[in-house]
């Protein structure tokens, strides 16, 4: 197809020039490539991770479900419902041309201000849970708006960058892009520092990939770190988490970290066997949520844990193929944002479980229990699959 856009890279000056000239035509020349089959390798990997997650949710929660809910499959059933809803949403969105989400200029303000309004409403009306206002209830529906914000930020920034690619050649344009996303990041960070860090990192990566400038990112990084430190110091429990991270054995709240490490160590190379964990018997809190990777290591051993990591890496690699061969900068940015989200969240979760970084509540993508997280992550997968339907195919 003539006039195909390439996303900006730093590999060579020639490629950067082609990327700039193509990006300048983005608004005037719509993509006319005919859709083809989606990337089914991504579908297979995602379905496998979701299925594996359901198995592990049952394995890690059956004891607690029997004890407190009189139903060993209590959390499995709830997660399965969200999994079915999420997979259906993934395939439906994959069938929609991803250009639909930016087809009208008024859609960007709707996404942007709608997301901010939802987050502000959460700060005001959400019930306090574990010391933070993160969950919003609408009738029987209870969800976490910060998960909505992740998808919204990726789509909003992808639209904005694709429409303003010329401005990304200047410091002013780069800082304006960051300033646009700052309200969403700050509002989320007020009650959820870890998710705020993820949103900030997604923003940095998407803008970094879309421009050939790199010096402004030192300033942006400094400002971002300063903001995160301010939010860290304004909440005593966040400072305590850093202290627990450095010396978990000296604090009562370090029990979760210590028990998680015991679970990892006791699994050995091949694990104790699926369903044979001892730490899930009330010793390790949140086994089906944030600490589920510890039980994976205990039951399936080092080989099982490495196998899951390999699947994540393969999935990210397939995303990179889609991003590189996307029909335009907009599609590339959607995929790059998803790469950043998935990769960072996997890193943070495993970093927490292994005590590499301070403890924070980030689920392991597709595997940890959490309906909102799973559904909106699958929606992101649908967007990437839609991009894959229009990417350049090898002759």
Automatic annotation (TrEMBL):
<dbReference type="Pfam" id="PF01098">
    <property type="entry name" value="FTSW_RODA_SPOVE"/>
</dbReference>
<keyword id="KW-0573">Peptidoglycan synthesis</keyword>
<dbReference type="GO" id="GO:0008360">
    <property type="term" value="P:regulation of cell shape"/>
</dbReference>
<feature type="transmembrane region" description="Helical">
    <location>
        <begin position="291"/>
        <end position="317"/>
    </location>
</feature>
<keyword id="KW-0328">Glycosyltransferase</keyword>
<keyword id="KW-0472">Membrane</keyword>
<keyword id="KW-1133">Transmembrane helix</keyword>
<feature type="transmembrane region" description="Helical">
    <location>
        <begin position="110"/>
        <end position="128"/>
    </location>
</feature>
<comment type="function">
    <text>Peptidoglycan polymerase that is essential for cell division.</text>
</comment>
<dbReference type="GO" id="GO:0005886">
    <property type="term" value="C:plasma membrane"/>
</dbReference>
<comment type="similarity">
    <text>Belongs to the SEDS family. FtsW subfamily.</text>
</comment>
<feature type="transmembrane region" description="Helical">
    <location>
        <begin position="329"/>
        <end position="354"/>
    </location>
</feature>
<dbReference type="GO" id="GO:0009252">
    <property type="term" value="P:peptidoglycan biosynthetic process"/>
</dbReference>
<feature type="transmembrane region" description="Helical">
    <location>
        <begin position="214"/>
        <end position="233"/>
    </location>
</feature>
<protein>
    <recommendedName>
        <fullName>Probable peptidoglycan glycosyltransferase FtsW</fullName>
        <ecNumber>2.4.99.28</ecNumber>
    </recommendedName>
</protein>
<feature type="transmembrane region" description="Helical">
    <location>
        <begin position="148"/>
        <end position="165"/>
    </location>
</feature>
<dbReference type="GO" id="GO:0008955">
    <property type="term" value="F:peptidoglycan glycosyltransferase activity"/>
</dbReference>
<dbReference type="InterPro" id="IPR001182">
    <property type="entry name" value="FtsW/RodA"/>
</dbReference>
<keyword id="KW-0808">Transferase</keyword>
<keyword id="KW-0133">Cell shape</keyword>
<keyword id="KW-0812">Transmembrane</keyword>
<feature type="transmembrane region" description="Helical">
    <location>
        <begin position="366"/>
        <end position="387"/>
    </location>
</feature>
<feature type="transmembrane region" description="Helical">
    <location>
        <begin position="177"/>
        <end position="208"/>
    </location>
</feature>
<feature type="transmembrane region" description="Helical">
    <location>
        <begin position="79"/>
        <end position="98"/>
    </location>
</feature>
<dbReference type="GO" id="GO:0015648">
    <property type="term" value="F:lipid-linked peptidoglycan transporter activity"/>
</dbReference>
<feature type="region of interest" description="Disordered">
    <location>
        <begin position="1"/>
        <end position="30"/>
    </location>
</feature>
<dbReference type="GO" id="GO:0051301">
    <property type="term" value="P:cell division"/>
</dbReference>
<feature type="transmembrane region" description="Helical">
    <location>
        <begin position="37"/>
        <end position="59"/>
    </location>
</feature>
<feature type="transmembrane region" description="Helical">
    <location>
        <begin position="254"/>
        <end position="271"/>
    </location>
</feature>
<dbReference type="GO" id="GO:0032153">
    <property type="term" value="C:cell division site"/>
</dbReference>
């Amino acid at each position: 197809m003539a006039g195909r856009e390439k996303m900006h890279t730093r590999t060579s000056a020639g490629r950067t020039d082609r990327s700039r000239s193509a990006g300048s035509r983005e608004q005037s020349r719509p993509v006319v490539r005919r859709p083809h089959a989606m990337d089914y390798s991504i579908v297979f990997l995602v379905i496998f991770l979701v299925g594996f997650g359901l198995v592990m949710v049952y394995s890690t929660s059956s004891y607690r479900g029997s004890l407190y809910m009189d139903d060993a499959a209590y959390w499995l059933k709830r997660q399965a419902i969200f999994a079915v809803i999420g997979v259906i949403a993934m395939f439906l969105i994959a069938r929609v041309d991803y250009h639909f989400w930016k087809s009208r200029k008024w859609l960007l303000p709707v996404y942007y201000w709608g997301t901010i309004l939802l987050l502000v409403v959460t700060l005001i009306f959400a019930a306090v849970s574990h010391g933070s206002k993160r969950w919003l209830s609408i009738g029987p529906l209870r969800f976490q708006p910060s998960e909505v914000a992740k998808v919204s930020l990726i789509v909003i920034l992808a639209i904005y960058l694709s429409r303003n690619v010329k401005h990304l050649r200047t410091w002013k344009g780069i800082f304006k892009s960051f300033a646009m996303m700052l309200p969403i990041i700050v509002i989320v960070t007020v009650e959820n520092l870890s998710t705020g860090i993820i949103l900030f990192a997604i923003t940095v990566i998407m803008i970094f990939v879309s421009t050939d400038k790199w010096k402004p990112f030192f300033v942006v990084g400094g400002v971002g770190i300063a903001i995160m430190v301010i939010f860290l110091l304004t909440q005593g429990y966040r400072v305590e988490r850093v202290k627990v991270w450095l010396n978990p054995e000296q604090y009562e709240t370090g029990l979760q970290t210590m028990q998680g490490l015991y679970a990892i160590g006791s699994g050995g190379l091949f694990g104790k066997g699926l369903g044979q964990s001892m730490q899930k018997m009330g010793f390790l809190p949140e086994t089906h949520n944030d600490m589920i990777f510890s039980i994976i290591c205990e039951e399936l051993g080092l080989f099982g844990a490495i196998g899951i990591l390999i699947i994540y890496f393969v999935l990210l690699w397939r995303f990179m193929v889609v991003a590189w061969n996307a029909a335009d900068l907009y599609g590339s940015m959607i995929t790059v944002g998803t790469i950043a989200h998935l990769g960072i969240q996997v890193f943070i979760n495993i970093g927490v479980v292994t005590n590499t970084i301070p403890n924070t509540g980030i689920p392991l993508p597709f595997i940890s229990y959490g309906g909102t997280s799973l559904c909106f992550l699958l929606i992101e997968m649908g967007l990437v699959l839609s991009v894959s339907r229009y990417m350049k195919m090898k002759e």
